[in-house]
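STRUCTURE:
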């Protein structure tokens, strides 16, 4: 179902990130209509319904309008260099609920193909809330991030235990992972909330407790090593 909301990527730009979203609307049909409405000026490359049905909206080589104002690992304007997948889910506003196995199974199959076609590494899979933590919550803490990582879609270091809270160290580790902070208009609490939704979903409060600090150490350590080899 082609969406008219697309344009060419800038010269030389190619997909480097895979951005996962939820639709955040009451029904799949409402979301699909919005993604194809020229007046909405929003789209994604794919939409996956809760039964696993996948709808292609924008060819991967073109620029879909899904990320909006965004920043990750020193780069802004991430529509230029990403592929976006929308997962049908009412979201936090309309009755957030777990993502069914049929939906996540289709996501894994689709994502692995995209990553293979464009040589996107596992650490290049991000949440919309990761790249826009001051304004987005999706796809959120109910997505099985650990299970996705086990299939090669994203990363998930196993927890290594708590660590003493240290705000300066937390900022350094968030930056190592890729999160925007104050220079990009994002508070520490907003960045921590996004981090928790992704990597510590059992507690999403934006606080820097020892559990969150330990998890930051786990993730920053892994991604620091991975980034150093690329």
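SEQUENCE:
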């Amino acid at each position: 179902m082609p969406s008219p909301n697309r344009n060419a990527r800038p010269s030389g730009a190619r997909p480097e990130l895979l951005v996962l979203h939820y639709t955040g609307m009451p029904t799949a049909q409402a979301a699909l209509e919005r993604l194809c409405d020229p007046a909405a000026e929003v789209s994604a490359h794919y939409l996956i319904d809760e039964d696993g049905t996948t709808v292609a909206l924008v060819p991967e080589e073109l620029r879909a309008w899904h990320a909006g104002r965004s920043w990750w690992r020193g780069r802004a304007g991430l529509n230029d260099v990403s592929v976006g997948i929308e997962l049908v889910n009412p979201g936090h506003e309309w009755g957030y609920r777990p993502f069914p196995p049929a939906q996540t199974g289709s996501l894994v199959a689709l994502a692995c193909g995209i990553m293979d076609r464009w040589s996107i590494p596992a650490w290049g899979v991000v949440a919309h809330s990761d790249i826009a933590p001051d304004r987005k919550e999706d796809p959120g803490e109910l997505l099985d991030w650990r299970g996705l990582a086990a299939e090669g879609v994203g990363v998930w270091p196993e927890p290594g235990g708590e660590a003493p809270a240290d705000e300066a160290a937390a900022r350094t580790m968030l930056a190592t992972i890729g999160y925007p902070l104050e220079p990009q208009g994002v508070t520490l609490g907003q960045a921590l909330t996004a981090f928790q939704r992704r990597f510590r979903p059992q507690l999403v409060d934006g606080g820097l407790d020892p559990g969150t600090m330990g998890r930051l150490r786990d993730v920053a350590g892994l991604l620091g090593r991975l980034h150093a080899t690329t």
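REMARK: The longest helix spans residues 210-228.
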